[in-house]
Design brief:
Blueprint: E1 9-14, H1 20-29, E2 33-37, H2 45-52, E3 58-62, E4 64-65, H3 71-84, E5 89-94, H4 107-120, E6 128-130, H5 135-144, E7 147-148, H6 155-165, E8 170-171, E9 174-179, H7 183-194, H8 202-210, H9 215-218, H10 224-230, E10 231-234, H11 236-248, E11 254-258, H12 267-277
Parallel strand pairs: 1-2, 1-11, 2-3, 3-5, 4-5, 5-6, 7-8, 9-10, 9-11
Helix pairs in contact: 1-2, 1-12, 3-4, 6-11, 11-12
């Protein structure tokens, strides 16, 4: 398994919803890494603010978008942040989604070229991970990066990803959780997060089809079976159990994304999950 000091559990949150105050609380709860979601700007000013507000926790991008941020800018940010904060920054990079990027073409070649340019700017293999779902990019993550950061997956995908990566590369999947024991309300919130965006994107659909889901699961707002596979809901123990499934399937680290209603504070759920996992 990987030796990068991410801790076994972290949090994933849109970069625009993160603050130094939240980062400090997350560190105190015992989480090991904060993943900056939603393709933060390449100067990574938000990462700098979170690192300055904390002492121990890693900060990682989940992800820098290769179409939006030139490799040279990402490399400069990588070096600046690690020089100032004792090596606590991990560069996660990926190609995003065909539906969201007008320039999207020849994606695998784009990834290889981006990695070549990071090499030229002396970003070490040990300091970067790739957004990866399918076998080809997972294998590239093992060859040209420290490992993989899959998004919107299941423990079964984690098991398959570990087989593709081999024993040592970092495997750090994201896992959505809702701490709510009302199944109907939790599924409604999950569908609000998933159905209009993620379940319409070809890379996610193709990956889930490889895992055995069918057109019937993607119809409408998604079948209960699909929603429940992608979003753990129930009490904090249920969320912790899903995280543990990923770890047992071969993950080194799981990035927990707490879903809440609009404007609700994520900290109560993050605290409850941390307690259930005994992170403190």
């Amino acid at each position: 398994m990987a030796e990068i000091n991410t801790g076994r559990v972290g949090i994933w949150r849109l970069w625009s919803d993160l603050s130094p105050e939240l980062a400090g609380e997350v560190e105190r709860l015992g989480y090991g890494t904060i993943w900056l979601g939603g393709s933060p700007p390449g100067d990574l000013g938000i990462a700098e603010r979170l690192l300055a507000a904390t002492d121990r926790i890693m900060v990682a991008t989940g992800i820098v978008n290769m179409w939006a941020t030139p490799a040279e800018e990402a490399a400069a940010s990588y070096h600046r942040l690690n020089a100032a904060h004792g090596g606590r920054f991990l560069l996660g990079a990926g190609i995003g989604h065909r539906e969201a990027t007008q320039e999207y073409r020849r994606p695998f070649e784009k990834i290889v070229d981006y990695l070549d340019r990071l090499d030229a700017r002396e970003v070490p293999v040990s300091g970067r991970v790739l957004a990866a779902l399918g076998p080809r990019v997972l294998r590239l993550s093992a060859e040209r990066a420290a490992g993989a950061h899959p998004y919107l997956t299941t423990p079964e995908h984690t098991r398959r990803a570990r087989a593709e990566l081999g024993e040592w590369p970092l495997l750090a999947p994201e896992q959505k959780v809702i701490v709510d024991t009302d199944a109907g309300r939790a599924r409604a919130l999950a569908r609000a997060n998933l159905s209009g965006t993620y379940l319409k994107m070809r890379n996610y659909v193709a990956n889930l089809e490889r895992l055995g889901f069918t057109a019937a699961d993607f119809a409408g707002d998604g079948s209960d079976a699909l929603i429940d596979a992608l979003v753990a809901h129930g009490d904090a123990a249920a969320a912790a159990a899903r995280v543990t499934e990923h770890l047992d399937a071969g993950a080194d680290h799981v990035a927990v994304q707490v879903l809440t209603g609009s404007g609700q504070d994520p900290l109560p759920a993050l605290r409850a999950v941390a307690e259930a996992l005994d992170l403190g």
